[in-house]
Amino acid sequence: MGIQELNGRFDGMHLHKKLSRREQEIVFFLCYFVAFPILTDLQYIHLWHQEAHFLSGCIFRVVEGLLQILAYSVYYFILVPRFLFAKKYGYFLGSVLAWIVLYAVYDRFVMEWGVSKMTFLPAIAKQWATGGFQQSIWVGQAYTLTLTNLLVITALAYFLRSFEQERQMNELKEQQLQLELEYLKAQMNPHFFFNTLNNIYSLAQQQSSATAPLVARLSEMMRYVLYGSNAPKVPLANEIDFLQNYISVERIRYPDNIDIRFECQGKTENALIEPLLLIPFIENAFKHGIQDELTKGYVEVIALLADREFTMEVRNSKPRRLSTDKGVRGLGLLNVQKRLALLYPGKYALSIADTTAAYEILLTLQLA
User: Fold this and answer.
1) Beta-carbon neighbour count of residue 222 at 10 Å?
2) Residue 141 belongs to some domain of the structure
3) Phi and psi of 15, rounded to 5°?
4) Tens digits of residue pLDDT in 123-133
5) Domain termination residue (choose one: 77, 103, 136)
6) Span 196-227, pLDDT tens digits
7) 339 in the same domain as 191
8) Domain of 53?
9) Residue 47 falls within a domain, yes or no?
10) Residue 122 backbone dihedrals phi, psi, to 5 degrees
11) Last residue of a domain, one of 96, 118, 136
């Protein structure tokens, strides 16, 4: 999956707590077969000055609506998914014709005769079941109404099906993005610790007294990587502390004539950032900047947080062997560029200046 295709997707892919599909179907059927007919009856009852029968009419519409829901549920939950969605159009057409015939029988003997025998219904409701509104509808109109109901219910089925498919697709994309992010982090962490262990090895060979403090700082960094960076976002202050530890570890390796500076401004306690996002830039500056320098060279890191806008500038000198080889970058830097595209689409700017004498990056992030 390309970065361009994923750009702008991650932040937009979140699930809200809504009605489930089954709950949506129940609400629709109740509104369509019960609530809407009651509202429609209000006009006729008012025109005919039969307000006294409104309650009876409501009871009748509830009973009739529930019976219709029972009949149309067979079509919606059985015929549509089994034949229409399965693209068995011949079987679907035959089953619909059979359903219409059975529905006519159901309407005559259950919805009319059966309702008229329900003792708990008011007399006017029983009259409406066998006469009144039912008998005033022509046969042609009755079939037209039935077909209309079928079309509306079919449209509902297609709408909810497409909505469910889109939801599932978004979930799959979100899972795929998360897996890709975890893969990028897994690539970066071993690469980082490999370099740090090389530092310890170098000091141990020299029997330096700085070896033990270096191991202690490495322990702190490992604790942060293993436990402190498990959350999707961490306080920016924690990430800055991690960078300071890393720079302190690297500073031990180099002589005093190598200029290593780190400066951070702004209150970073309340801002949140993706964990382990910034370290590859600094790691890249040391590895491809002053790693082989013995006489001169520099690494400068300036971080600033102002109004939720975080800016970090990293500058490093380039050794002579790289002065004519532009575009040299570490694996971690390539990975962090991918993470930025995935996690901060439209919320970051990254500029890189690669000259014969220096390498500079300027990162700007809009943080939460």
Assistant:
1) 14
2) no
3) -105, 130
4) 655 555 555 44
5) 136
6) 788 788 778 888 887 888 888 888 888 887 78
7) yes
8) 3-136
9) yes
10) -65, 160
11) 136
Do residues 209 and 330 share a domain?
yes
What is the CATH classification number for the domain harbouring 300?
A: 3.30.565.10
20 with 356: CB under 8 angstroms?
A: no
* Owner of token pair 């300027």: 362
Cβ proximity of 336 and 352 under 8 Å: no
Amino acid, res. 52: A
Residue 226 domain flag: yes
Residue of higher predicted confidence among 163 and 46: 163
- Rounded Cα distance, 1 and 341, in Å: 13
